């Protein structure tokens, strides 16, 4: 007689959220290449075929994690901010409260520089979307919204890496506010239309 291990049944949305949370933690610890489907399945109380039923593949799992993070960030920032400086400050405050997610993105962003990484295209498109979004927010405030958008993204990314390396010494929010004084000091008030 074979004993069958009972697994708790969760509604599909709740199970998907659990899978994303476990995967996020594991990728932040090990990177995508160090992630095993077995470890994710074990962390969720599933078999690998059960996990695949929900996500389709390891690449599908990665993209689900990335999409979930982007959706959550967008909702959070839209509620908190209206000016370019407020949008950036809201993003930094949000990231300061979720170092595991920021670490996940930093690791994946670096890994995805390799053209054969499953998230290579995702991060290239995400970078362009981020720059386009910042540039759009800055139109009417500066003569070079595209150039300033690149500087803002670079400053945010750089500060986050330093903060992740030494969180006890670096206050991400305070460092951003100091940088924002320089970045936004010369912005013009928005123009009409």
TrEMBL record:
Keyword NAD set for record: no
Alphabetic keyword roster: DNA-binding, Transcription, Transcription regulation
Domain of life: Bacteria
DNA-binding region: 36-55
One Pfam family named in its UniProt record: TetR_N
Domain HTH tetR-type, chain residue ranges per copy: 13-73
UniProt-recorded Gene Ontology molecular function terms: DNA-binding transcription factor activity; transcription cis-regulatory region binding
Gene3D superfamilies for this protein: Tetracycline Repressor, domain 2
InterPro entries: Homeodomain-like_sf, HTH-type_TetR-like_transc_reg, HTH_TetR, Tet_transcr_reg_TetR-rel_C_sf
Protein name as annotated: TetR family transcriptional regulator
Source organism of this protein record: Paractinoplanes toevensis
